[in-house]
Amino acid sequence: MKRPLATLAGIALVAISGWLAPPARFWAAYTASTMFWLSLCGGAAAFVAALEITGASWSEWVVEQAESWARLFFVPALALAALPLGASHLYPWAQAPVHGLEVWFAPASVLVRDVLALLVLGGAILWLLNGKPGQRYRRAVSMAMIWAIVGSLLAWDLIMSLEPGWTSTLFGAYFFVGGLYAGIAAVAVRALARPARFTPEASHDLGKLLFGSAMVWGYFLWSQYLVAWYGNLPREAEFWLRRAQSGWAALGLLVVAVAFLAPFLTLLSARFKRSPRALATLSIVILAGLWAEKVLLLGPAVRLDAPLPIGLTELAVGIGLSAAVIGLLPAPAQRGR
User: Fold this and answer.
1) Which of 47, 113, 182, 332 is the most exposed place for a label (fewest CB within 10 A)?
2) By C-alpha distance, which of 124, 128, 106 is closest to 116?
3) What CA–CA distance (Å, rounded) separates 25 from 234?
């Protein structure tokens, strides 16, 4: 009974936040937390696909945990169904036509496109997870490609479109790589619940994957910033300047420290990587940083002057959605190969 109660309590907390908070701030927080969970579950499915494609067999337990997180994909996808209710408080294209993109960013067009994309990705995830051992390789390749395409599309439509005129050809890749990073970290967190099955060898291997994911995520973040800094074009610089004002700059530094520097420095140690509890604790910190990153991406679009970027609204919505999602986390399916 504890898990269903956690889900109901989480939904109630989000609903109360929506009632009390200013609409623009609530919907920015709601979208940030929903996109965080969507990227995590999609990234966990991509992790399953990557393990299948590479023929990894060092821990069946790790695959089981990744599959459990992937099966949650429909929860944040369903949560996005509420977004049209608040789109006018958040997105410029929901308030007035965007010059040159009137058709692409027509509200009906965005809704139909993203719903279809979520259905395709959700279907691909179930298709992969329910496949027999001999079928999973090809399905894994297809699912990984679909995640890259749909993840990019959702990042463009629901995050990048908050800043009219700003474009980044790398932003889609940055989003779906961040999802893979979050998915691997979520698998490591489960070691706290079942440390006996999470061997030091599996912990070491997963720690190396986390280290590599942190490097790729940090590289993509730096590459986007470097191009904008070097080009110094107003339409590109504005995105970064918005996130360098008031408390947003401090939050940005915190995200880099938590999601990149901390794993980079700690995961250099083989001894640290071989400790399941240490790796799980670090993974919780990483996930908190990646959630804060989503708040940083969305918040400045509606709340530029924010001495305290993460307040009660963001925390309540984040905790509420997390409780709602985790409360529905299925037990790992026992697998045999």
Assistant:
1) 113
2) 124
3) 26
For residue 329, which of 68, 55, 4 has the smallest C-alpha distance?
68
Element (H, E) at 219: helix 200-231
Q: Which residues 6+ apart lie within 8 Å of 313 measured at CB?
A: 17, 21, 25, 26, 29
Query: From CA 309, how far away is CA 300, in angstroms rounded?
Result: 9
pLDDT digits (tens, 9 = 90+) for 205-216: 899 999 999 999
How many Cβ atoms are within 10 Å of 306's Cβ, its own excluded? 17
The burial class, CB within 10 Å (0-12 / 13-18 / 19+), for 151 is: buried
Q: What is the pLDDT of residues 32-44, one digit of tens each?
A: 999 999 999 999 9
For 95, the token pair is 């308030």
Is 208 within 8 Å of 74 (Cβ atoms)? Answer: no
Q: In this predicted structure, what is the pLDDT of residue 1?
A: 44
| Alpha helix ranges (H) inside 130-199 | 136-158, 171-189
pLDDT classification of 73: cutoffs 50, 70, 90: very high
Residue 335's nearest CA partner among 125, 66, 11 is 66
- Please tell me the distance from the alpha carbon of residue 206 to that of residue 199, in angstroms, as a whole number: 11
Residue 225's identity, in one-letter code, is Y
| End-to-end alpha carbon distance in the chain | 33
How far is it, in rounded angstroms, from Cα 335 to Cα 48? 13
Contact assessment for residue 189 and residue 277, using Cβ atoms and an 8 Å cutoff: no
Cα distances (angstroms) measured from residue 295 to each of 65, 68, 176, 248, 277: 27, 25, 17, 10, 28
Q: Which residue has the tokens 């040159």?
A: 100
Residue 329, token pair as written in the block: 């986390």
Total residues found in the chain within this entry: 337
Q: What is the residue whose two structure tokens read 């973040």? A: 221
Q: What is the mean pLDDT of residues 213-234?
A: 90
Statement: the pTM of the whole predicted model exceeds 0.90: yes
The three-class DSSP label of residue 268 is coil
